[in-house]
Design a protein that fits this description.
The chain is mainly α. It is 71% helix and 1% strand. It has 26 helices and two strands. A two-stranded antiparallel sheet has the order 1-2. Helix 2 packs antiparallel against helix 7, helix 8 packs across helix 17 and helix 12 packs antiparallel against helix 16. The longest helix is centred in the middle third of the chain and has 29 residues. It starts with a helix and ends with a helix. The relative contact order is 0.08.
Length: 546
């Protein structure tokens, strides 16, 4: 009707403004869904290591801080750009969490808009690109990356991931050295934010196939511009070398923090089995995101031959299907292998930490699955009568439903207490949530409740030296000296190299009036910390308690 009244000028105007209006709509939805996050505080799990108790970060942007960030393996990671980002936040907002959350929201918004713009430019499909971006913006599994201040590295590295993709698409349209160097530089910066980008060179090869259509295999019929696969591989070699260097640095950082799990052949098989199962579990959580928590404990008993076989069958069948449809529906191959490849560094074949899986690991990998959903849904709607209206309606329902779940999930991140109590409600045998909740309760002088949660944590996972030390501290604060000594003893038996454990045990002996046992304990501490142990030994001798 409007076209009849105003003619082609209005139609041309609408075409010109379609993308800006779409980006505006996406931006409004993203900010509206995450607005409540600005009222959240810091949490006591990693936020202290990254911000609140990190003395270098708390100084703000300083020369010493910049130098430290370039060489630090603090918290088991090497990511200087992430440290600089946190330092800048401290410079601007101090310890006001609202400012830190605001920057995280802006980064998530930038990632969402970039994703939409890059996909639209590469494919020409605005509606499908918008749907991918909206799924990315409001999916509940992404709350952890956005609402957890310590996960700034996810947001920052993804920003550089997308900028690298955009620069690569720009380079593919006109190959020249300056554009190639821009891709290399952005990849390097992304790796300095988080090493999740180590798989990006392989993803760029996928993009060569579709939607950039640079490979002979990915060309449409009649296309004349074909680049040999050897050349495409050759131009990725500098990127792969950069990724390999970053991967080696990451392994060294994790080794220095003791985060890498080492085990025999049985452990390696367990980790591999859990990784395969996790690939399928993530698929289920993408479709039905419920029972989300900050921590999912690794349970060896859950890695059964039946579950591993089922996961292998699902992954193999899906891979076979997308390979068979690669010519008619190339987005299936790209989306599926995007998912498989980008999860590879964090899926758990190389075990880091004690979690079985984590929501934050899906921030980049789910983009591949969202591509499949959007392009597959778009194709299906084109075959149906009134298909566009049906697809639009389903898209609105999907985005609305996911947004409501995300808003609820954001509320759990308001404070540490809500976060851990929710984790205990939705994940059985969650020893970490019990332990961390117990620490909060102890800080509120609720010693009986704290002891109960520590004991439950240790019942589930008895190989926690830190857990026994925490329990001993609370026993000691509650005046239960003998129980404190027994807890500290259990801790140092599990980890004889625990400096803090030996110190606490020796102190407990002193409080109990047993100077000889305290002296013996500090002797055991001397090979681990010579100066501190010697000072303690001297103080016991001078006091005459031995």
């Amino acid at each position: 009707m409007l076209n009849k009244l105003f003619g082609s000028p209005l139609e041309d105007l609408l075409k010109t403004w379609r993308l800006p209006l779409a980006l505006l709509l996406i931006g409004v939805v993203t900010v509206a869904v995450y607005w409540l996050m600005l009222g959240n505080g810091f949490i006591d799990y990693d936020d202290d290591a990254y911000v609140t108790a990190n003395q270098m970060v708390r100084q703000g942007l300083t020369v010493n801080g910049v130098i430290w960030s370039l060489g630090a393996f603090h918290a088991g990671n090497w990511h200087p750009l992430t440290w600089l980002s946190h330092m800048l936040d401290m410079e601007l907002f101090g310890l006001n969490p609202r400012g830190h959350h605001g920057v995280s929201l802006l980064l998530h918004l930038a990632n969402t808009l970039l994703l939409c713009g890059i996909l639209h430019r590469a494919t020409g499909f605005l509606g499908r690109s918008c749907f991918v971006a909206l799924l990315f913006a409001v999916h509940p599994l992404h709350v952890e990356s956005v609402a957890w201040i310590a996960e700034r590295k996810d947001l920052l590295s993804t920003l550089f991931w997308l900028l690298t993709m955009g620069a690569y698409a720009h380079y593919s349209r006109k190959r020249c050295l300056s554009r190639y160097l821009a891709v290399f530089l952005l990849l390097a910066l992304g790796l300095m934010a988080k090493q999740m980008l180590v798989t990006l060179p392989l993803v760029l090869l996928l993009l060569d196939y579709w939607p950039l259509n640079r490979t002979a295999a990915g060309q449409e019929e009649g296309a004349t511009k074909q680049i040999p696969l050897k050349l495409l591989l050759a131009e990725k070699i500098p990127f792969l070398l950069l990724s390999a260097a970053a991967a080696l640095i990451t392994l060294r950082a994790q080794e220095s923090a003791g985060a890498l799990a080492h085990g025999g052949g049985e452990s390696i098989l367990l980790y591999a089995g859990n990784a395969l199962i996790s690939y399928v579990r993530y698929l289920g959580e993408m479709v039905w995101p419920s029972g989300l928590a900050i921590f999912y404990p690794f349970e060896p008993t859950a890695v059964t031959p039946l579950r591993v076989t089922g996961a292998v069958a699902i992954l193999a069948a899906t891979t076979t299907f997308v390979l068979l449809r690669r010519k008619s529906r190339p987005y299936l191959l790209v989306g599926w292998f995007w998912y498989l490849l980008t999860l590879l560094p964090v899926i758990g074949f190389v075990k880091v930490g004690s979690q079985a899986m984590a929501d934050r690991y899906t921030y980049i990998p789910f983009i591949g699955l969202f591509l499949i959903v959007a392009w597959g849904g778009g194709e299906l709607s084109g075959r149906l009568r009134h298909g566009i209206r049906v697809a639009a309606g389903m898209a609105v329902v999907t985005i609305t439903s996911l947004s409501l779940v995300t808003i609820t999930q954001i509320r759990y991140w308001q404070n540490s207490y809500d976060l851990y109590t929710h984790a205990l409600e939705v994940v059985e045998r969650n020893w970490l949530a019990h332990n961390n909740l117990a620490i909060l309760l102890a800080q509120q002088y609720r010693y009986d409740d704290a002891i109960r949660h520590f004991q439950e944590s240790l019942r589930i996972y008895p190989e926690q030296a830190d857990g026994f030390r925490n329990l001993g501290n609370v026993y000691q604060a509650a005046g239960r000296s003998q129980e404190a000594i027994e807890a500290f003893l259990d801790g140092v038996r599990i980890n004889p190299n625990d400096v803090e454990g030996h110190f606490r045990l020796g102190y407990a002996y002193l409080l109990g009036g047993n100077g000889d046992l305290a002296y013996r304990e500090y002797l055991a501490l001397r090979p681990l910390n010579e100066s501190s142990a010697q000072a303690l030994l001297d103080s016991i001798r001078l006091s005459g308690k031995r």
